[in-house]
Write a structure and sequence with these properties.
The protein has 661 residues and is an alpha/beta fold. The protein contains 20 helices and 19 strands. Strands 1-2-3-4-5 form a 5-stranded antiparallel sheet, with no helix packed on it. A 5-stranded parallel sheet has the order 10-11-12-13-14. A 5-stranded parallel sheet has the order 16-15-17-18-19, sandwiched between helices. The protein is globular, with a radius of gyration of 28 Å. Pfam families: Exostosin_GT47.
Length: 661
């Protein structure tokens, strides 16, 4: 009352102020609501805070992102939102935040995670794979703007990356940092404030993130450990469709034509040879003319008769291979880009599951025969990064987000294309990369799509192109000083075991193999993971050396180190992996030294093996012994060894893919 009659003007001012405050409050609520809809991570107030520091709190961890972009530190990371991925440039000393995914890109990344189902391994690293049990709790990833270096340090400031061949923390550098779906789901249930954890827990409510297992044989459930694997197959006119009950179709649910036979892959190779999809260069060069001249000679080679260094039955056309190899030695010149800093670039890993990319990098850089310092003289350009070190240095454990890894390589390709004219001249068609990590197809997609990719994960359903890309052998190297340790095996007459397999239950196929054959037949030595220890490792090797056939089923991905292991121990490999392009497919005839079976043939495995006549088996085993030298790493490269075979396949595919204006 006093306000109305004694101070009418003051009352009017107070009334108007209240209305303005109410209006501002409504606008603030509307703004926050709008921001929560626009930002995938739901942190709507972030844009209202000062620019000094943004911090996302997660139980047991802190992710601090400074808007000044001076540095980034991740302590014991558990989850990171997809929009918080960091794009890092090691090429010009610049560090900046990567662009957020647009539209439905976040959900596309989830679809791609189903394609990239994990990492295959063998028994020797079973113990090492339990990363979540022995990973240092105070690992710190530090990216410094001025130095543009990446390191992973312990509390005593000892750099793990400098101890590449040691086991300081109880795990080898070769060991992959695997996302643990069970832990992620537990964290998701506990951490209601973690939006990313909620997102993935909702996206995969009833099955492990690593792979919705599919039984290609029949509809049933199989218990592996404490996990029940549900497998559902729906037939369609285009093939099999992988489905999950109660879920909409995702990218991995689309019908896929299963390519199982060598004859089908041969038809694809012939079509690629006839109609190359390689783009024409923006301008011609002398080097193009030299490759074109080599192509005409490879297509019309002199007949190679009784070459003591080559076993003719191993090759599709031994004369073409011999002529192409000679021209490679005489003609090929390669330029290696100097851009990129260690550890992701120029730092090879020579032991473990991903050693192939490291050995090739080491030998390529050290073997001066093919190298030129002047890029104008080069026929091919090598981008020397390690897909294993890329994952090791930049992947945030349990984040289930690899967008920043792909963005990192995109920035690298943009850097060299801006500095040099060669990438743009061909769209990257005369550039090549060598990568063994299972994530490499995803990391190099789009921005390196036209490059020649030498990949261990040679999966036709993940973009591998027969006739352009190269299937890189996945080799498990146990000793960097002596990669040939324990080479060889018993002669055929002394091999008492019909078939052997032992390993982790990665993927959907291996549980099916054990379901049908574990402890079912004395001639079939089919096991799960062998217990840790030196004795078990030696038993594994002795079983391979004592077996006629070594079973090589796919794991999470189509590739497996057992293929090369079998050849290493002179055991005939039996490859069971649909859509897998075997190594050096463009030149080798895999029917001369291996068996390639369809996944649906697992129930008939013994029937197939015992139906092979002894004479045929002896021919296959001879082929294994003869092809062995093409799958061996040497400290100093030897003619026709694994280094030269990889380089030759890259050269060979470029010869047949080249186009002129």
């Amino acid at each position: 009352m006093g306000c109305t009659f004694q101070f009418p003007k003051l009352c009017n001012i107070e009334s108007r102020s209240r209305r303005w405050l109410l209006l501002l409050g409504v606008l603030s609520v509307a703004y926050v609501a709008l921001q929560s809809l626009l930002l995938p991570n739901g942190i709507a107030l972030r844009s209202l805070l000062p620019h000094s520091e943004d911090t996302l709190q997660v139980k047991g961890s802190v992710l601090a992102v400074h808007s000044s972009a001076k540095s980034m530190m991740v302590r014991n990371p558990l989850t990171v939102n997809t929009s918080d991925s960091i794009g890092v440039s090691m090429f010009g000393g610049e560090i900046r935040q990567g662009a957020e995914p647009k539209g439905n890109d976040v959900y596309k990344e989830i679809d791609l995670m189903l394609e990239e189902k994990g990492i295959d391994n063998n028994f020797e690293s079973d113990v090492d794979r339990n990363v979540d049990d022995d990973f240092p709790s105070e690992n710190v990833v530090v990216i410094n703007e001025s130095l543009a270096l990446v390191s992973i340090k312990n509390p005593e400031n000892v750099t793990v990356l400098d101890k590449a061949d040691e086991t300081r923390y109880g795990f080898h550098l070769e060991k992959i940092v695997l996302p643990n779906p069970e832990i992620t789901r537990v964290n998701a249930s506990k951490e209601n404030s973690t939006v990313t954890a909620k997102k993935f827990d909702t996206a995969f409510p009833s099955s492990p993130l690593i792979l919705p297992a599919v039984n290609l044989l029949e509809n049933r459930s199989t218990s592996v450990g404490s996990t029940s694997l549900k497998r559902v197959v729906v037939a369609s006119k285009n093939g099999l469709v992988m489905t999950r009950p109660g879920k909409k179709k995702m990218k991995s649910d689309l019908p896929l034509k299963l390519i199982t036979s060598i004859s089908e892959m041969n038809r694809i190779l012939v079509r690629k040879r006839v109609s190359s999809d390689s783009p024409k260069p923006r301008w011609s060069s002398v080097r193009d003319q030299e490759i074109l001249a080599a192509k005409s000679q490879v297509e019309r080679p002199p007949i190679a008769i009784n070459d003591p260094e080559l076993y003719a039955p191993l090759f599709r056309n031994v004369s073409m291979f011999k002529r192409s190899y000679e021209l490679m030695e005489r003609t090929l010149k390669i330029y290696i880009y100097k851009e990129g800093k260690k550890p992701i670039f120029h730092q090879p890993i020579l032991k473990g599951l991903y050693a192939s990319e490291g050995w090739f990098m080491k030998l390529m850089k050290g073997y001066k025969r093919f190298l030129v310092k002047d890029p104008r003289k080069a026929h091919l350009f090598y981008m020397p990064f390690s897909s294993r070190m890329l994952e090791y240095a930049l992947y945030v454990r349990n984040s289930h987000n690899r967008t920043n890894l792909r963005q990192f390589l995109r920035e690298y390709s943009e850097t060299i294309s801006a500095k040099y004219p060669y990438f743009n001249r061909t769209g990257g068609a005369d550039h090549f990369l060598v990568a063994c990590h299972d994530w490499a197809p995803y990391e190099t997609r789009h921005h390196m799509e036209l490059c020649i990719k030498a990949l261990c994960n040679a999966d036709l359903t993940s973009g591998f192109k027969i006739g352009r890309d190269v299937s890189l052998p996945e080799t498990y190297v146990r000793s960097a000083r002596n990669p040939l340790r324990d080479l060889g095996g018993k002669p055929p007459s002394q091999r008492e075991i019909l078939a052997f397999y032992a390993g982790n239950m990665h993927g959907y196929l291996r549980p099916i193999l054990l379901e049908y054959w574990k402890d079912k037949d004395p001639d079939m030595k089919i096991f799960g993971p062998m217990p840790p220890g030196v004795a078990s490792k030696m038993k594994y090797i002795h079983h391979m050396q004592d077996s006629k056939y070594c079973i090589c089923p796919k794991g999470f991905e189509v590739n497996s180190p057992r293929v090369v292991e079998a050849i290493f121990y002179e055991c005939v490999p039996v490859i069971i992996s649909d859509n897998f392009v075997p190594p050096f497919f463009e030149v080798l005839d895999w029917g001369a030294f291996s068996l390639i079976l369809a996944e649906k043939d697992i129930p008939k495995l013994k029937e197939i093996l015992v139906s092979i006549p002894e004479e045929k088996y002896l021919q296959l085993q001879l082929g294994v012994r003869k092809v062995q030298k093409h799958f061996l790493w040497h400290v100093k490269p030897l003619k026709y060894d694994l280094f030269h075979m990889t380089l030759h396949s890259i050269w060979y595919n470029r010869v047949f893919q080249i186009k002129l204006r």
